[in-house]
Write a structure and sequence with these properties.
The complex is a heterodimer of chains A (about 425) and B (about 120).
Chain A lengths: L1 H11 L7 E5 L2 E6 L5 E8 L11 H8 L9 H11 L2 E6 L4 E8 L3 H14 L4 H19 L3 H14 L17 H11 L5 E6 L3 H12 L18 E6 L5 E10 L4 H10 L23 E8 L3 E10 L2 H19 L5 H19 L1 H14 L6 H8 L3 H13 L3 E6 L13
Parallel strand pairs in A: 2-6, 7-11
Antiparallel strand pairs in A: 1-2, 3-5, 3-6, 4-5, 8-10, 8-11, 9-10
Helix pairs in contact in A: 2-5, 2-7, 4-8, 9-11, 9-14, 10-14, 11-12, 11-13
Chain B lengths: L7 H6 L1 H18 L17 H8 L3 H19 L20 H18 L7
Helix pairs in contact in B: 3-5
Classes of the chains: A alpha+beta (about 425), B mainly alpha (about 120).
């Protein structure tokens, strides 16, 4: 009885890391199988917007995903995937392009073939760019205009990092991208050392054998590069209408993201642990009615951006909320008292661990580690959070607050506050 | 079917047939008269078909402009009841098929769509 229970428990054990990383002919292949009913394969490619050769090509390439290749047409890919009941998706971040196929167990030969044939033999036809890709690119740009939060974070990246990480995720509204630009960007990005193949719900050996043959055709090394990030800071104000009044107060730093800032973000995070409650964040108590503060923490491979996204119905309300948020941040730089540090660390650890529970989180958190050849487990992240001390957190926060802030105002710029009005 | 049947691929596949028929083809194309109006053979394709419209949209802007120019020049010549001066006639080497490959591509896409619309799936 006892042994039976013990064995069933080991079967249900959820692996929190990619068990093994096998470097097959220059391609990193990692897989984790938690016995879930569906499987997924992701090609994580270092072709994010920071690597782009011309502004917007990364966005174009993302929307070109799963169009015609030498093996099947765009329509054929869609219809055949529907027959198998799978989902194909592409997502772009500043550092990575992720091409993902999610499917039922057993259909992996087909879906891995869809991914590899796109990576090895996509056609990048001119008429497909004009008929399918350009309209979706345009609609995504149009959609972003109604999202002041997104606009603020985009502008903050440009102000904070200038080139590289500063380049926008989206193409500009009046771009001059052609299918040829996208083709040459893809050709330099799709190289064996630039791709990590990540599988969930699939056996490592199966995935390796499926991928090995086809990806050996790719060139060995990528020709893309991005300058090392450095942090600048500054202020920008964008006139917009329709959405909430938005202000982003950010602090960036170059170098590997530190666990102290993750703990700080978790401590200030205004997302309550219990639904419909106010939460215990030091910011929420002081906020005027109708305003909201979101803590944004974006770690990258060689820099990080921490910030407070303040939104409200009017400029003066946003000013009040911004003051409250900056005040809360300054209190942390004087040191956390008592249980506050424990709470912050526990929240940060939970955020890190629960991110890995979902498929997207697993890919975004551990995928980049697989690609860079680091140890791809959660334990390292949790252990580094455990080491955060009261002093270290206070020191990190005070040095963060002392840096030149990034300040972005989106909305009615006449009433929105300036950075000096917020107490910085 | 905007393009109709053609035996050209079969003829081109055989060396002897090509050498016999090419002079006849050139003689016929010159006799047809469209070259004297500065047109290319693909300008004669009837464009009131969805497939042809789609193919026309896939021409490069330069090709679209040139096609409109040839049409305009030819209709002007028609109004004048005269052919163009000889130096403006289409030379045989300029008379390339710039549109029909695109129409064939669109037709192939239509065919593929019809195939997927009526496909029968069975579990092995």
């Amino acid at each position: 009885m006892l042994t039976a229970r013990a064995s069933s428990r080991t079967v249900q054990r959820v692996a929190r890391n990619f068990a093994t990383v096998v470097d097959s002919a220059g391609v990193k292949v990692a897989a984790v199988d938690n016995n879930q009913p569906t499987a997924s394969v992701t090609f994580l490619i270092k072709a994010g917007s920071r690597f782009e050769s011309k502004p917007g090509v990364a966005h174009g390439l993302k929307n070109f995903a799963f169009k015609s290749s030498a093996k099947r047409s765009a329509l054929g890919t869609v219809r055949e995937s529907e027959i198998y009941g799978g989902v194909l998706s592409a997502s772009l971040s500043r550092e990575h392009l992720a091409l993902t196929a999610e499917f039922l167990r057993g259909d992996e030969p087909y879906f891995v073939d869809v991914l590899t044939s796109f990576v090895t033999s996509a056609k990048f036809a001119r008429h497909e760019y004009n008929e399918y890709v350009a309209p979706t690119v345009e609609s995504e740009i149009e959609e972003s205009k109604f999202n002041p939060g997104f606009q603020a974070v985009e502008a903050a990246h440009a102000v904070a990092f200038h080139n590289g990480l500063g380049s926008s995720l989206l193409a500009s509204p009046h771009n001059s991208i052609t299918h040829e630009d996208i083709r040459s960007f893809a050709q330099s990005a799709f190289a064996r050392d630039n791709i990590a193949v990540l599988g969930t719900g699939i056996d490592q050996a199966t995935l390796t054998s499926l991928v090995e043959q086809s990806l050996s055709k790719l060139s060995a090394t990528s020709q893309l590069s991005s300058p090392a990030s450095s942090y600048f800071g500054g202020e920008t104000r964008l006139q917009a209408h329709g959405g909430p009044q938005t202000v982003f107060i950010g602090f960036g730093s170059a170098g590997i993201p530190s666990p102290e800032i993750a703990a700080l973000a978790a401590f200030l995070s205004t997302t309550p642990s219990v639904k419909w409650s106010q939460g215990t964040s030091p910011i929420t108590a002081a906020l005027p009615k109708g305003t909201a503060v979101e803590v944004v923490y974006l770690p990258y491979s060689d820099a990080s951006l921490f910030g407070l996204l303040v939104q409200g119905p009017t400029g003066p309300a946003v000013k009040e909320a911004g003051k409250a948020a900056v005040q809360a941040l300054k209190t942390v730089s004087n040191g956390l008292k008592g249980d506050d540090l424990k709470k912050a660390l526990a929240k940060a650890k939970f955020a890190a661990a629960s991110a890995v529970d979902s498929r997207e989180g697993l890919l975004s958190v551990l995928g980049s580690k697989v690609l860079s050849g680091h140890e791809s487990s959660l334990d390292a992240t949790l252990a580094s959070l455990d080491k955060v001390s009261e002093n270290a957190l206070a020191k990190a926060t005070s040095s963060l607050v002392k840096t030149k802030p990034v300040f972005v105002a989106v909305g009615d710029v006449a009433t929105l506050p300036y950075v000096d009005e917020l107490g910085l | 079917m905007p393009l109709g049947l053609t035996l050209a691929p079969k003829v081109l596949a055989s060396k002897t047939l090509t050498s016999w028929i090419t002079p006849v083809a050139h003689w016929y194309a010159n006799l047809a008269g469209y070259r004297r109006y500065g047109l290319k053979y693909d300008d004669l394709v009837i464009e009131e078909y969805e497939d042809v419209q789609k193919a026309l949209n896939r021409l490069t802007p330069r090709e679209q402009y040139d096609r409109a120019f040839r049409m305009k020049r030819a209709s002007h010549a028609s109004v004048l009841h005269n052919v163009l001066p000889k130096e403006e006639w289409t030379k045989p080497e300029e008379d390339v098929r710039f549109l029909s490959p695109l129409i064939r591509e669109v037709e192939k896409e239509d065919k593929e769509r019809a195939m997927w619309d009526t496909v029968y799936v069975s579990r092995k």
